[in-house]
Write a structure and sequence with these properties.
The complex is a heterodimer of chains A (380) and B (187). Helices cover 45% and strands 12% of the residues of chain A. Classes of the chains: A alpha+beta (380), B alpha/beta (187).
Chain lengths: 380, 187
């Protein structure tokens, strides 16, 4: 080719490139992926990609007895399994028009709050790790372990307790257990100033988290955000108070809110919620000895238990937000349909995609952890 | 605000053809409505009654009646009550309109229902696969899809008889029962 005939092939000038963030990545919670398009180190497009943790729970539950499903549900969200058990049990109880003994209700609330504390400690650890503070992560996991110890003594399982069953709970607490709960609560509370020094008031964290992934209240409502993420935009909504279940209407607790709606506010709301949960647990420890009676209502032979036909939607406040179970029975011994509405199905998909836009690559992991997204809830 | 749908809204909703309102308790209202009227209903509930939070959309496959039931759970932060709106659509062709213009969370639920039940939502922003990216079979949450039959067709049962298991089996233990045998014992 003669040099004068040579024409270079021209590409439109672009500095954009694509990057797969996950499914195996230390900055992603669980097996989940975010496909980001970057210009320099700024995200210009993001697309969530799930399915790596799909185990088909909803289909599996249609093929199992009502009571068998109790062993399945806690596996849907590993860091915070108790709300799954309670929500499913509440749905079956509603379909059966069944009363739960008062003592069982208090025990359930105790479990829910301990699980919330454990989940929040875990989230702090994860969030701190995304800003390079690994010590907080080790502390968070170690302190969470103390609660898992309590669960192990109480139910036999550290993570999957399979403790809440339709009609109540499987067994009462062991002797002297409440003392050990109090002791653990005192210990965790005494640790919080250390966490504050190391993490919450750490200038590295404050600088990194402030104005990262901000959303205002209007956006949060439009995107269906719930739980601590919604409260971090200034709206004091909590299913425990505003749509009460179990004995939450007899418990005194506050709903912490923050206005800015960024990663810093979301974590601060969780930090205050942790204190509120400790406060609730202490109330239960005080109250429980005065509540006698059985811990469960007898149910018919669970292997031949036909639940009356009907449908119900029950909700609880998990550590991540609003958790809902839509359960349909056709009068047989198995559920006709179970639909699980995990709060992360909003937070980990649309909200994460939206908040990542314009963020820098190193903040994407932090945004995901500050939303406390739980991918197995999305995939189910 | 009161804890239930306000009376004037009740009157307004009564104007919609084929509507049936049932109160389950002070915070739960069930509305059955014709599929054509649902967008109008949601517009009223969102715009006039403060039901701004779409908690969930659920699809139920009523295969005997050849229908899909779609259930929209709406929560009002003001009146603190939950309305569940139920509609039925024909199982074939299984097409309905998206409510994404009213409720953005619908995008996730509609995509999920399309993937799991094969219901197509017209106007939904994204109907591409999300969870079952490498699945080419029928929508698996439909009642006619039998997971176990599919497994039996696709995979083979293999004999698993290592020596250590043989010893246990001879003593009467082990994991030697197929699902069929288990089922015959517990009909």
């Amino acid at each position: 080719m003669r040099p004068e005939n040579y024409q270079a092939i021209s590409h439109p000038p672009s500095n954009e490139y694509e990057l797969n963030f996950g499914p195996n990545h230390p900055g992603i919670e669980g097996n989940y992926a975010l496909k980001v398009k970057l210009h320099g180190d700024v995200v210009v497009a993001a697309r969530a990609d799930g399915g790596y943790l799909h185990r088909g729970f909803e289909k599996l539950m249609e093929g199992r007895l009502w009571i068998q499903n109790i062993a399945l549900v806690p596996r849907i969200c590993v860091p915070d399994p108790v709300p799954m058990e309670v929500c499913y049990s509440m749905a079956v109880e509603t379909l059966n028009d069944m009363e739960v003994p008062e003592r069982a209700q208090w025990l359930r609330v105790l479990q829910l709050e301990l699980s919330r504390i454990a989940a929040h400690l875990f989230t702090f650890g994860g969030h701190a790790a995304t800003t390079g503070m690994y010590t907080t992560m080790y502390w968070g996991v170690a302190d969470r372990d103390l609660i898992l110890d309590l669960f192990e003594e109480w139910t036999g399982g550290r993570v999957y307790h399979i403790y809440n069953i339709p009609g109540g709970v499987r067994r009462d607490i062991p002797e002297g257990f409440l003392d050990r709960v109090s002791h653990t609560m005192d210990y965790i509370e005494s640790r919080l100033p250390d966490y504050d020094n190391l993490f919450f008031t750490n200038q590295v964290f404050v600088d990194r988290a402030k104005d990262t992934g901000p959303m205002n209240q209007q956006q949060a409502l439009e995107w269906g955000v719930t739980g601590p993420n919604l409260r971090a935009t200034g709206l004091a909504f909590d299913v425990r108070r505003d749509d009460p279940y179990l004995v939450y209407d007899q418990i005194d607790f506050e709903i912490p809110t923050e206005a800015p709606g960024d990663a810093w506010a979301r974590t601060l709301v969780r930090r205050q919620e942790l204190m509120q949960s400790i406060h609730i647990v202490r109330q239960i420890v005080e109250k429980l000895p005065s509540v006698g009676g059985p811990v469960r209502t007898p149910i018919p032979n669970p292997l031949a238990w036909n639940v009356p036909a009907g449908e119900t939607y029950t909700r609880v406040e998990s550590s991540k937000g609003e958790l809902g179970y839509y359960v349909v029975s056709d009068g047989s011994d198995k559920p006709y349909r179970v639909h699980i509405r995990g709060p992360s199905s909003m937070h980990a998909v649309r909200v994460l995609e939206q908040l990542s836009l314009g963020a820098r690559l190193e903040d994407v992991a932090q945004i995901m952890f500050s939303l406390d997204a739980c991918p197995p809830e999305v995939d189910r | 605000m009161s804890k239930t749908v306000t009376p004037w809204l009740d009157n307004l909703l009564q104007e919609i053809e084929g509507i049936e309102i049932r109160r389950k308790d002070s915070r739960r209202v069930r509305i059955d409505i014709a599929a054509d009227s649902l967008p109008t209903l949601l517009e009223l509930l969102r715009g006039r009654a403060g039901y701004v939070h779409l908690s969930a959309i659920t699809c139920v496959d009523w295969i005997d009646e050849s229908q899909f039931e779609l259930v929209y759970q709406l929560w009002s932060y003001e009146s603190q009550s939950l309305v569940s709106a139920h509609i039925r659509i024909a199982r074939e062709p299984g097409v309905y309109v998206s409510v994404f213009d009213l409720y953005q969370p619908a995008a996730f639920f509609e995509r999920d229902i399309h993937e799991m039940f094969g219901v197509y939502f017209e106007g939904s922003p994204d109907m591409s696969k999300f969870i079952l990216t490498e699945w080419n079979g029928p929508p698996p949450m439909r009642k006619e899809f039998d997971s176990e039959a599919w497994v039996n067709e696709t995979f083979e049962w293999k004999d698993y008889q290592p020596d250590w298991l043989k010893e246990i089996t001879e003593q009467g233990g082990g994991i030697v029962k197929t699902p069929e045998e288990t089922r015959q014992k517990n009909p």
